[in-house]
Design goal:
This protein has about 250 residues and is mainly α. The protein has one domain. The protein is about 80% helix and about 0% strand. It contains eleven helices and no strands. The two termini are about 25 Å apart. Keywords: Cell membrane, Membrane, Transmembrane, Transmembrane helix.
Length: about 250
């Protein structure tokens, strides 16, 4: 089972990191389908998120696609709320219901932007408004055990907040700090569970896939291709969650 998951985790990290995401949503969906324990899957998904987007943050910043001031402002409210959302006790059935709905909605938003938004021109934005939106997304990301970039990125793209590459960089940073905050929230209530013979091979797989994906995105990979593949994966994960745990 672990070998099969390693191969799929590698592919997911490759695709998601190309769009500035960590892949936590699909990691959770796969582990749920494989029958992995509830707390183990949540802790493992967040840790995989952290190692993937850490490399992404470095590569986007190195290539000039991470406006650091915007990244910090977007995350100021989200980090404590991600901790609170992660600390909130949820039954397994409620967790998968919330996650399934949130992922399906995020995928629909991404598809709408891809097919309905004909032009793209960066607008003069008030970062404070997006910081408040980021706070709500941080709380939701803490509840669902993922970093929240798949919720934030479509909102930023629809609002034409920054260039597509910069939004990928902002999403990577957002996921990193919120995943750390969410993991700390789980630790605060004693819910962090790791089995290193299971978790470590998956971490190695996503590190390799994430490094390749972030290098491709920061270099020459077209964002629209990556967004379409990512939207499909997120939609698949959300629908499978709702189907199996309705």
């Amino acid at each position: 089972m672990v070998l099969e998951l390693c191969l799929v985790f590698f592919a997911i990290a490759l695709i998601y990191s190309s769009a500035g995401f960590g892949g936590g949503s699909s990691y959770l969906a796969l582990m749920a389908l494989w029958g992995v324990g509830f707390q183990l899957m949540k802790s493992t998904a967040l840790l995989c998120n952290i190692v993937v987007v850490t490399g992404g943050v470095y590569h986007f910043y190195k290539n000039g696609h991470l406006p650091f001031k915007k990244a910090v402002l977007l995350s100021l409210v989200s980090v404590p709320l991600a901790f609170a959302g992660s600390y909130l006790p949820l039954k397994q059935s409620t967790f998968f219901l919330v996650l399934g709905i949130a992922l399906t909605a995020a995928a629909a938003l991404m598809c709408f932007r891809l097919f309905a938004q004909r032009s793209y021109k960066i607008k003069d934005q008030r970062t404070r408004s997006y910081a408040l939106i980021g706070g709500g997304i941080g709380f939701l990301s803490g509840m669902t055990g993922i970093g929240g970039g798949i919720y934030l990125a479509p909102v930023l793209r629809l609002g034409q907040y920054d260039s597509p590459k910069n939004i990928a960089g902002l999403s990577s940073f957002f996921i990193l700090v919120n995943s750390i905050s969410g993991l700390l929230g789980q630790a605060a209530k004693g819910a962090v569970v790791f089995q290193w013979e299971f978790t470590l091979p998956l971490l190695i797989s996503v590190v390799i896939g994430g490094q390749l994906g972030s290098r491709l995105s920061a270099g020459w990979l077209k964002p629209r291709w990556v967004e379409a593949a990512t939207a499909f994966l997120i939609l698949y994960a959300g629908v499978r969650m709702l189907y199996y745990y309705h």
